[in-house]
């Protein structure tokens, strides 16, 4: 790109996620949905919660969606529904946000950390069997950054060893998975239970905290619903030990509007990612996101790998030029202070450790303007020209 073709610095600050502009796009519908809740004043378990749950179940093509307060609660309640005993083991990926391992440890279970695939960053399915012991009860594959873990082998292993599978689908709702037989299913609907988060930056996002669980198993659905509601079978009839984890009616109303746009939002992020991929194709110091044939990718994050020890310098360079970026995640779980006591490692975690040194996520969202992305691309290319 010569000087005459150089991108113009955007007037507005570039953001990792632009929630304000997205709200303005949907303002009329969202304001009307919020106003309806305010007028009816059914702020807890109002009709919009059931409407949204049914809407999401239809979208995901699964019989049961049980809303809850947040994505971490969703994993906790899913684990509680399986009647596990303290000291039993749950397999989780070492490169991931803390939520899955945290809930496992909090319930008196043992997180067993396995390494991840160097290309996809998701759980390395070839490492699962070596992590299984007589105490293993659950596998929690995480669909990371917008694409699905390879669920076919996960489910085969689970069946072989009689294990449960809980999918953490907080970052990849709307992504699809093609199993070895060629059947296509939505990420989050393949295991015994799927969980998701509606945190404001997520692909399907509310304006506060929110989450949900999904399952095709009628009995599990009943247990999940009861546990999320104080273990109540009926009001004041507490059949199980549960918790208080509810999706607010206001958030459900907002989500019900935004669910209508989820497919469109995912298409926009894919387009932004494809522009990045094309622009960075000739940069030998960058590895762009890999997408295997078995999954679609909705690019919740656009995460590159920066080679030759240049990641931190690139991030500093971008920061100086008012381009935000994020490192997801800077410390693998096995090196977190909390998990030195509460977790155990299954073999070598060298890939997870390596990724923490090289990954960098660039801005990607549904409202990104072409000139903003052009400017980001230009700054990245300039860095590698000079370094």
Detailed description of the structure:
This protein has helices at 19-40, 47-60, 71-80, 99-106, 151-161, 218-228, 249-259, 262-280, 311-320, 339-342, 350-358, 370-386, and strands at 64-68, 89-93, 110-114, 136-139, 164-168, 176-178, 184-186, 193-197, 211-215, 232-234, 237-238, 286-287, 302-306, 344-345, 359-362. The chain is α/β, with parallel strands linked by helices and 387 residues long. It folds into two domains: 24-114 and 121-259, Type I PLP-dependent aspartate aminotransferase-like (Major domain) (Aspartate Aminotransferase, domain 2, 3-Layer(aba) Sandwich), CATH 3.40.640.10; 261-386, Aspartate Aminotransferase, domain 1 (Alpha-Beta Complex). The strands form four sheets. Strands 1-9-8-5-4-2-3-14 form an eight-stranded mixed β-sheet, with helices on both faces. The longest helix is centred in the first third of the chain and has 22 residues, at 19-40. The protein is globular, with a radius of gyration of 21 Å.
């Amino acid at each position: 790109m010569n000087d005459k073709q150089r991108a113009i610095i955007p007037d507005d600050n570039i953001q990792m996620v632009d929630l304000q502009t997205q709200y303005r796009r949907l303002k009329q519908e969202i304001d009307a949905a919020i106003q309806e809740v305010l007028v009816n004043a059914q702020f807890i378990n109002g009709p919009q919660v059931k409407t949204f749950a049914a809407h999401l179940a239809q979208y995901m093509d699964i019989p049961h969606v049980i809303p809850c307060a947040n994505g971490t609660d969703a994993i906790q309640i899913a684990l509680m529904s399986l009647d596990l005993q303290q000291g039993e083991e749950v397999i989780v990926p070492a490169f991931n946000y803390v939520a899955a391992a945290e809930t496992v440890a909090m319930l008196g279970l043992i997180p067993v950390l396995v390494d991840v695939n160097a290309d996809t960053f998701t759980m390395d399915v070839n490492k699962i069997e070596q992590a299984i012991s007589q105490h293993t009860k659950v596998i929690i594959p995480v669909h990371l950054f917008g694409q699905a873990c390879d669920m076919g082998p996960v489910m085969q292993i689970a069946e072989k060893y009689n294990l449960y599978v809980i999918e953490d689908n907080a970052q990849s709702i709307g992504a699809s998975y093609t199993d070895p037989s060629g059947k296509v299913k939505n990420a989050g609907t393949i295991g015994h239970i799927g969980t998701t988060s509606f945190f404001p930056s997520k692909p399907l996002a509310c304006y506060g905290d929110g989450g949900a669980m999904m399952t095709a198993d009628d009995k599990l659905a009943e247990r999940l619903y009861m546990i999320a509601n104080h273990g109540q079978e009926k009001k004041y009839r507490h059949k199980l030990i549960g918790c208080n984890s509810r999706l607010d009616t206001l958030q459900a109303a907002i989500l019900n509007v935004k669910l209508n746009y989820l497919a469109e939002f995912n298409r926009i992020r894919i387009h932004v990612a494809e522009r990045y991929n094309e622009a960075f194709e000739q940069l030998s110091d960058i590895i762009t996101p890999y997408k295997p044939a078995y999954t679609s990718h909705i690019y919740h994050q656009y995460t590159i790998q920066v080679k030759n020890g240049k990641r931190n310098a690139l991030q500093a360079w971008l920061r100086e030029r008012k381009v935000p970026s994020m490192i997801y995640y800077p410390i693998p779980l096995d090196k977190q202070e909390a998990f030195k006591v509460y977790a155990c490692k299954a073999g070598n975690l060298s890939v997870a450790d390596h990724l923490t040194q090289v990954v960098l996520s660039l801005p990607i969202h549904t409202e990104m303007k072409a000139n903003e992305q052009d400017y980001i691309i230009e700054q990245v290319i300039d860095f590698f020209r000079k370094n």
